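Lecture 7, part B: from sequences to assemblies.

Below are the input chains for today's worked example.
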Amino acid sequence: MGALAGRLGRVKLCASTPVKSTGEAATLAAGGLALSIDTRARRHWDRALTSTPVVLSASGTSTGVAISSSNYAVDYAAGTVTFATARSTAQVYTLDVNYLTASYLGVTHGWTLDADVNMLENTAFSTTTGATRWRTFTPGLGGGTVSLNRFVQESTASPFYDLQNAESDLVLELLPSATAGAYQCSGRVERVGFDTPVDGMPEETVDIRVDGPLSFTTNL
Amino acid sequence: MAAKSGKLGKIEYAGAKVLNINQWTVDIDTNMLDVTAWSTGTDQWRSFAAGLSGAAASVSGFWDADGSTGQKNLQTNVLTPSTGTLILYINKAGGENLRGTVLMERMGVDVALDGTADVAFDCRFTGAVTYSTAT
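Predicted structure of the full complex, as structure tokens:
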């Protein structure tokens, strides 16, 4: 694929109220580590609730047995479960989740994403007769920020202003186009700015801090 | 040798060409350790010894993480840090290039309605940068 026009971009914002669903069909990817729910619209999960997705084996030798949550990690924003050790793809897995419905965000005309990883220097003295010259690094913590450029919607309160006031987190999808893939993350509203010039459109700028993992998927 | 046009550039990462990139920069620096000392003369000029060297690179262009394997590899190693070999070609035909092992430090994606979907990556060399004329 070549360069994309910015006009193809989109942003999705998840509703804050979760919907409980049990027995969701899920597929374990080749390699036996990554499990994702089959229904795309149910792949953003509420992390605020104490109930975590319970992975069940619905066939094979351990039919209907829940798998201990100590055996897997959950990425709530991406709706994936990653097992610590590979499991059989021959078995059928289901998930019980509290999913958040994602909808396209209106009056938005630009987004930026900045993901960064701390570089921790670990340069050390040489252990040979040759001297150390080049610096070496190991990756530290990762993080990210998102900025949205939006028009102010008449007679409609900004969802981000409300989220900021309520100190609530959110789940976002940032799409370069409808089919090219999506960045997914949970986030917290860090800043909301409004700009109302006499000779232009009233605009809203939203800065969001990525809270937890940031992922990219082409499985749309 | 005559000046080279930027259109001859190319980059590869983790064994794959990185497509839809239109700029790269690399900065290689060496710490200058000031070893100036009192002298018996009247003139006083600073003198230095070379300290540690390091390097950082930036690449930017059009977002193509769904089409270019190399660009997807860059993105993957931002989201899940891992090292990879970066080769920055000055002349893809002649083969002049700078290369080394890098850690991805930053990724920026910018999608504006009236522009193109753009991407920029910053990376840090961990270890030596070498110059080569081999393709």
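Note for the exam: The domain at 8-28+54-132 of chain B is CATH 2.30.110.20 (Pnp Oxidase; Chain A). Keep this in mind when comparing with the next example.
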